[in-house]
Design a protein that fits this description.
Helix content is about 60%, strand content about 0%. The chain has 5 helices and no strands.
Amino acid sequence: MAKNDKMTAYQTQFQKYASMNAEELERATKEYEREFIIEESRPLSPEGEKLWRRAKNKPGRPRMGKGAKVISVSVEKGLLVRSDALARKLKVRRAQLIARGLRAVLAAEAKR
C-alpha cells in the first residue's frame, strides 16, 4: 500500500468517526472498552514482525570496523587536558583522537 493510500485510508476513517454523533460514536467504539483477550489475538504478519523489530530495536551508534569495546584507561591529567584541547581544535571526540593515535603507533611499529 502506497503512502498516499495509507493517508487516504486514515482520512476516510477519521471522517467516518468525525461525522458521528455521540451515541453513534459510543456504539462504534464499544469493542475497544473490553479488556485485551489473548485468545482473540493472532501472530504478526511478516510485515508486522519487521515493523515490530524496527520499533523495538534502538538505533545505537553506527558500527565502525568490527564494532567498539568500552575500556577504562588511566591517563596522566596533563596529557588528558592537552589531548582534549587538541580534540576540540580538530573537532573530533576524545575517543576518535585516541583511536587515531593508536593507529599511528601501530602503523609505525608495523614498519619496523
